[in-house]
Amino acid sequence: MAEERRADGVYEFGDFRLHAAQRRLTGGNDGRAIELTAKALDALHFLVRRPGELLDKSTLIAAVWPNVVVEENNLNQVISALRRALGDGSGGRRFIVTVPGRGYQFVAPVREVHDEPPSAAAAATLPTSSTCKSIAVLPFASLSGDPEKDYFGDGIAEELIHLLARVPGLKVPARTSSFAYKGRNIDVRQIARELGVGMLLEGSVRSAGDRIRVTAQLVEAGSGFHVWSETYDRRFVDVFELQDELAAAIVQALKINLGDGERRVLRDAPPTRDVEAYRLLLRGVAMRHNFGASERVIAVLQECIARDPGFVRAHAELAVAYNILFSLGSHGPEILSEAQRCAERALSLDPRSAEAHAVIGVQHAIRGEWIRAEDSLRRAMDLNPAEPLTHSAYALFVLGPAGKLEQALAEALTSYELAPGTTGAAINVAGFSSLSGRDEEAMHFLQVATELGARTDRLPLALFRSEFARRRGEFAAAAQQFLAVLPEELLTRGGEQLVKLVYSAFAEPGEAPRALAGLRALYAGEALPSLGKWPMILMTLCWYTWLGALDDAYATARRIVSGFKQTGIINVVNLGPLWMPELLAFRRDERFQGFVRDLGLTEYWRGRGSPEGWFLKGERLLLQ
Question: Which of 402, 391, 333 is nearest to 361 (CA)?
Answer without folding.
Answer: 391
